[in-house]
Each structure stands twice: as C-alpha cells, then as structure tokens.
C-alpha cells in the first residue's frame, strides 16, 4: 500500500496497513530549524541549506532525504508570497525585525532568539468601519503564489504521497486578531462585532479567491487543504461557543463549503488548546480533520475524544505531547507515551500520526527518533 492509499483509508475512517506518519507534511506538524539541523547531523544526512515554511516560527521545510529516511506519507505544497513582497530584516538594537505582507511587524531577540513575535498591529487604533473596509490586503491572485504549485504537487504525487496544500495566510479569525492586536480583538468580539463581521467577510472573500484559482490549477492532485485559527487557550476556549456560533461559524461554513465545491478534498483545521466544547460546532462548520489535538489541555483526553468525535473527525496529531514530554522525557518514556496514544487513536482509522504541533528547538534528536521507533513498533494494523 502506498502513502496516498494509506492516508485516504485513514481519512475515510478505515484501517490501512499502518498508521500514516507525518513530519513536515504541514506547517503545523513540522520542526524548528534548530532541531531539524540537529536531527540531520544525528542521522548522518548531508548538510543542506534549510528552507523555511514559516518565517515567524522558524519552521523547516523537511527535505526529501529526511522525508524518505523517516518514511513520511505526506508532502506539503506551499504557495509563495506575492511578487511585490520580499523579506527585509532590520536591526533594531536588541531585536531583528521585519514586516510581513499584511503589514504586521515581527521581531526576534538578536541574542539567543528562536522565534519572531508580533509587536506591531496595523489596525490597533482603527475606530471606524471605513478604516476596516479600506485596509489593503495582499493580492490573492499574484502569479508568484501559484508558479510552483503544480511542480510541487506532481513531484509528491509521482512518489505516491498524499498532497496537502497550504493557504495564503492563517485563518480568518487569526489574521484579524493579528491585524487588530489581541486586546482589541477580544474587545471587538464583545463590543464591536460589526468590525469583526466586516473583516471576517473580507477575509473569507480573500481566501475563496485564492482557493478557487489554486484548486482549479492543482485540485486534481490535492488531497487535503489547510485552514487554521487558534480558538483555544491552554486551559479553555478563547471565546464562548455562542460567540463562535454567532460570529465565526457562519463564515467558516461559507469558506469550507466553497473549498469543497472546488475539488474533492478534505479540510484540515488547526486550532490549539482546550477546544472540546467547540468541536460540535466545528464539525457542523465542515471540518474533516482536527489538528494538533493538544492532549495537555483540559478536556482533550484522547480516550474521550476518540469515543465522542472519532466517527466525525480524523485526528491529525496527538501522537506525542510536545509541551511536557517530547523535550524533557527520556527516550524510553517518550516511547511509552507514544505507544499509549497510538493504542487509543489508531483503532478504526481516522488517525494520522503527528506530534502535537511543531517539534520545538530544544528537542534532542534521540527523543525524535524515539517517537519514530515507537510509531514503527506500534503503528501497525490491526491495532
């Protein structure tokens, strides 16, 4: 059974020959460049110039030699930025900074910094609907976004891999929160819902414009498309189910149904945190796949999630806790942890093995390989 068939059986809640394995098949299940370089050295793979799939988080695009070494089943197809945008890094004393194509400012400590954090939100002072309506978005149809999509997808398909297509930006709620700034975003959810509705509608239109062209060009090769918002915090959702249902879900329904009308793809939806109370509404909105399945948060018990939502959701993640296990436990402890998670999520299919979000910079290669060895040992059907 090749990777494509293996992934599709899992996506259709059937048991393939083994649990599909993902590292680097999405920008939400990949690895920090520091940990990636350490892993390459540990495995004796040649030195390469590492390319990034996410600048702010410093996440590596996994090279084909690594993907083959680890027998990964999924390949990421990544649109480029607009041709009018280039990364320009500025020295701001203690920080290195850049502004992205949305006008959001990011900076990273020059001394030992691992990630870029947001520090400038261009709509933080906006106080009228006209300002929100007039704010310029990047061009979703810029030709550079699409130039390499076909070749990336064909390369993956020729190897029998499942193809995952990323979008042009983060999710509709997340992009709005970044433009607005978190404090004002949560105030808007409560008090300025006309601002929220205006911007979410604009962002849905923006995304639909991109997805229509992208899936027209390569929809025949794509299996899964990525959408992502963070709706959950460490201990609870970031909004009430009522707020999600009133403001965000109608836009999600419109977006997800539009995507599925363009090509026979599954919608992969990323939201971190404690989101169990939002899952029924997300399922109703049209998601097929939940990522990263943050098992360290309250309510995200794998046994309960599988029992309650396993017929409706594919769990893409949940393989190993990156917060409390992967970076600090011994390799043997990591293996035992992974074994338990596979035993819970694998039966009946509906599971793609991945870490809970991206592997962080501090994770030793021995622990990464302990994850892989545990998957090799216990990720075989019958579960």
Mind explaining what this structure looks like?
This protein has 383 residues and is an alpha/beta fold. It has one domain: TIM Barrel (Alpha-Beta Barrel), CATH 3.20.20.210. It has helices spanning 3-11, 33-43, 64-69, 129-134, 143-146, 149-158, 172-180, 182-191, 193-218, 241-262, 279-285, 302-309, 331-345, 365-378, and strands spanning 31-32, 52-54, 59-60, 74-77, 90-92, 95-99, 105-109, 117-120, 162-165, 224-228, 266-270, 289-291, 314-316, 351-352. A seven-stranded parallel β-sheet has the order 4-9-10-11-12-13-14. Strands 5-6-7-8 form a four-stranded antiparallel β-sheet, with no helix packed on it. Strand 2 and strand 3 form a beta hairpin. Helix 9 (193-218) runs parallel beside helix 10 and helix 13 (331-345) packs parallel to helix 14. The longest helix is centred in the middle third of the chain and has 26 residues, at 193-218. The two termini are 17 Å apart. The mean pLDDT is 98.
Low-confidence stretches: none
Named at the architecture level, the CATH assignment is: Alpha-Beta Barrel
- How many strands? 14
The ordered H/E elements are HEHEEHEEEEEHHHEHHHEHEHEHEHEH
Helix percent band: 40-55%
CATH class: Alpha Beta
Strand fraction: 5-15%
Largest sheet: 7 strands, parallel
Summarize the structure.
The chain is α/β, with parallel strands linked by helices. The protein contains 14 helices and 14 strands.
